[in-house]
Amino acid sequence: MNNLLYKHNILNHHTSYMASTAIYLHFLLFILTFCSFIHQLSFSFSSQEYHEALEKSILFFEGQRSGRLPSNQRVTWRGHSGLSDGSSYHVDLVGGYYDAGDNVKFGFPMAFTTTLLAWSVIEFGSSMHDQIDNAREAIRWSTDYLLKAATTTPDTLYVQVGEPSMEHGCWERPEDMDTPRNVYKVSPQNPGSDVAAETAAALAASSLVFKDSDPAYSSKLLIAAINVFHFADSYRGSYNDSLNSVVCPFYCSYSGYNDELLWGASWIYKASGINSYMEFIQSNGHILGADDDGYTFSWDDKRPGSKILLSNEFLEKNSEEFQLYNAHADSFICSLVPGTSSFQAQYTPGGVLYKGSASNLQYVTSTTFLILIHAKYISSNGGVISCGTSKVTEKNLINLAKKQVDYILGDNPTKMSYMVGFGERYPKNIHHRGSSLPSIHQQPQQISCNSGFQYFNSDSPNPNVLVGAIVGGPDIHDNFFDDRNNYQQSEPATYINAPFVGALAFFSAQ
Q1: Which range in 237-251, 321-335, 370-384 is most confidently predicted, on average pLDDT?
Q2: What does the alpha-carbon distance between residue 3 and residue 422 come to, in Å, rounded to a whole number?
């Protein structure tokens, strides 16, 4: 009997202990969950972290350089490449950038990249501090090349170096390229208003960047921009039709060339103040898409960017001629703001803008940049826009942009930074030839076209970290697969980084 009572007491004590433990564990779980919730609510990067990301986003462009690298090259695993580009055609086309993870120099996305890098400096250069010189150098590396492409031969614009179909069939370092470096151009007989007008925009925008630091260079850029735009306008036609399979399906001008003509004229007017470009915009705006609401801003479609750029002219000068552009700019911005009657964008469950399965972050960075520019523009005009029955403030727009920036830097469901080299966790197997193959300094022997695929198919992380590169990003469900073969998600591109430079500069100053 006593033995049974003893067991009963022990059992009661054990049961009481287990109940207390369970309550404690539930309480501990509640505390941990609550702390996690509070962390998510208060998660924020510091201005120093944004500045670090800014530095890395600019550094990325050094990894994309073609040509003879300078002595102050910081991405040291790269070497000289493409040193004979153009020589078989008796022109000097050495330099410029490789657009993404391949070794072709595509003039259309390179020009757009340059325009947005320049716009980043124009709007937010004062916040770049010790990175302003690096930003200018990133722009100049491209404009030096674009000047050669635009001024070497009268009424001719060289728009591409390399054979994309053959080059994409190889996996080799840019330093080892042995595929044909054929050169392609547009001319009066084979026009390319889209690529020419975008090149004019790049040169004009860049002329503003160097206006104070290098006035002679600035003037040279503006004169070239005016000449290239005259060529684009005088000989109208799409470079798709002139060059066909050379540029399609790689960088087809799907939106046509009207948006580039409006975009190029807008930039030349902003850079020069020449009234004839204002008159061109007023006379041709309706034909060139002033009445069209475009909701995607990219290397192909410039409509939202033109509206935002020209809306500033309306706000600064209170000019009736530009009211149309301001209305369309507001419409574009309103379409992005959840909770308004104008909202029509799509976001993933994690909160990032979603436009397409391939390289979605290019749309995120370009759109975020436009949001911040419009927020800046309206700050001097009451700081509010009307989105249907809703009022959207400058602060609302900045918060929306911040969500996109923070998502890319790591505040997302995967807790991964989509900028290589930033944060504790980032993509290690990016779809990029130079990054994934041994550096020419480590393995000087040539790695041939087909030999490189042993590295492409390897499970090992890329041996060379392409610091600052922003990859294509996650899918509509916020899933990301760090797979070299998954180029839709894992390939970086210059036009993903370019607008992000401006966005990071803005937040580094907050």
Answers
A1: 237-251
A2: 66
Phi-psi region of 123 (alpha: psi -120 to 50; beta: other; left: phi over 0): alpha
Is 320 tagged catalytic? no
Catalytic choice (137, 144, 482, 483): 482
239 contacts 108 by C-beta, under 8 angstroms: yes
User: Catalytic site residue 424?
Assistant: no
Averaged pLDDT score across all residues of the chain: 91
Q: What share of the chain is helix, strand, coil (3-state, %, to 5)?
A: 55, 5, 40
Q: What are the pLDDT digits (tens) for 346-380?
A: 999 999 999 998 999 999 999 999 999 999 999 88
- Give CA angle at 410 (406, 416), nearest 5°: 155
Give me the amino acid identity at 186.
V
In the numeric block, the tokens 């930033």 are attached to 422
As given in the structure block, the two tokens for residue 355 are 């436009």
Q: Give the DSSP letter string of 445-477.
A: S---TTTTHHHHT-SSPPSS--TT-B-----TT
In this structure, are residues 93 and 148 in contact, taking their beta carbons and an 8 Å threshold? yes
Record the tokens describing residue 171, joined without a space.
Answer: 């996996």
Q: What is the dihedral of CA 128, 120, 132, 47, to 10 degrees?
A: 20
| Secondary structure letter of residue 44 according to DSSP | -
Domains of the chain and CATH, by start:
52-80+89-508 (1.50.10.10)
Helix (H) or strand (E) holding 334: helix 323-334
Tell me, yes or no, if 431 is annotated catalytic.
Answer: yes
Residue where the block lists tokens 């915009």:
281
* Cα(238)–Cα(66) distance, integer angstroms: 27
Q: How far is the CA of 367 from the CAs of 32, 392, 474, 504, in angstroms?
A: 36, 17, 17, 13
Residue 5 has pLDDT above 50, yes or no: no
Sign of CA dihedral 328, 359, 299, 379: positive
- Residue 161: beta bridge partners? 105, 183
Residue 7 in this model has a pLDDT that exceeds 60 = no
Q: Please report the pLDDT score of residue 294 as a whole number.
A: 80
Rg of the Cα atoms in the chain: 26
Active-site choice (175, 198, 411, 491):
491
Query: Which among 311, 301, 288 is positioned nearest to 371, based on CA atoms?
Result: 311
What is the pTM assigned to this prediction?
A: 0.91
The one catalytic residue among 431, 441, 478, 483: 431
User: Is the alpha carbon torsion for 407, 411, 413, 414 positive or negative?
Assistant: positive
Task: Say how far apart CA 440 and CA 163 lie, in whole Å.
Answer: 23
